[in-house]
User: Fold these one by one.
Assistant:
Number 1:
Amino acid sequence: MSDPTAGPMTTTELDFALAAYREDGVWTVTPLPLRGEPDLSSVVSALRRYPGDAGVIGMISVDEDFFIVLRVVGGRARLLLSDVTAATEWPLAKQVIDELDIPLAEDDDEQVPAGDLAIVADLGMSAMDLGALIDDVDLYPEEMLEEIADALGFGTEFHEAIEAVG
C-alpha cells in the first residue's frame, strides 16, 4: 500500500492516457486501459500490445501538472518526462526518473524535462521544437500533447480520443 502522505497517484488524477500508432500511414489513437494505480512497467506492457510501423507512442497527462511520453519500439521503451520536479510528488514520474537513472530533483530545482527530447524526431517534431514547447509555462500538459499530436499528424484522432475519455 502506498503512503497517503506521499501524494499517491490514482487513476482519478490521470487526465488521460492514450496510445497512438501508425499502420500503413494511418494513425490510430485510443485510450490506454490502465487498471488501478498505474506504474511504468504496466504502462509499457499495455503499450506493447499495440502494433505500429514506427512503434507505439504513449501520452499520459497527470493532474494538469505534467506529462509523460513513452515510445515503445520492439523491446525498447524511450521516455520523456515534461517536468523533473514532478518526481518529488508523483510515483509514476519518480519511476520514469529512476528508469532514466537521473537524480531526484530538489524542491527549488527548475521545471525542466528529463529523458529523450528526440523521442519523436523521426516522426516530425525535432528535439529543439519539443524542448521549446515544454518550456512554454503558459501551456497545460494537454495543450502540449495536443501540439505534439498535431505536429506528428494525428491531431484529429487525438481530439477524438480525448473526447472519448472525458
Number 2:
Amino acid sequence: MATITPFLWFDDQAEQAMNFYLSVFAEARVLNVNRYPAGAPLPEGTLMTASFELNGLAFVALNGGPMFSFNQAISFVINCESQQEVDDYWEKLSAEGQPGQCGWLTDRFGVPWQIAPTALGRLLSDPDPGKAARVMQAMLRMSKIDIATLERAAADA
C-alpha cells in the first residue's frame, strides 16, 4: 500500500529543524540522512534530505533554498489527551516561534502546528447546541487551549 509522507522544504535549516523536532517528541528517530556532494547548490556536506519519524509518522526534510516557505494553509495537529501534554508541546514548539489563536502556533522554523486537546472535539460536538456554542466562544478567546476553561464554559448554563 502506498504511504503518504509530509515533505518539508527549508531554505537551509532542515537539519536544525529535524534535530529540534527530535527533541520535542518522545517517540522520535532519524531514518536516513543524505548530504550534498561537491558541486551541488549548497556547500558540500550540507544536509540535502533527511527522513525522520515523530510519534510514528515519517517526515522528509529538504534544504532546497529560499524559493518556498511555509504558511497556515497546511499545519500539523497534535491531539493531546491532557492539559500537561498541551502545555508541554505548546511551550516547546512556540519557543522562539509565534503563538496564534485557538491552539495554533508557528514554530521557529515557520512550520504551523495545532496543539489540540481531544476534549475540544468532544465538547464542540456536544448534542446540546448551547454547550457547544459556549465552548466555541471560550476557544475563540484563547491562544493556547485550556481544557478546564472549556469544561467550565460547557457546564455554565
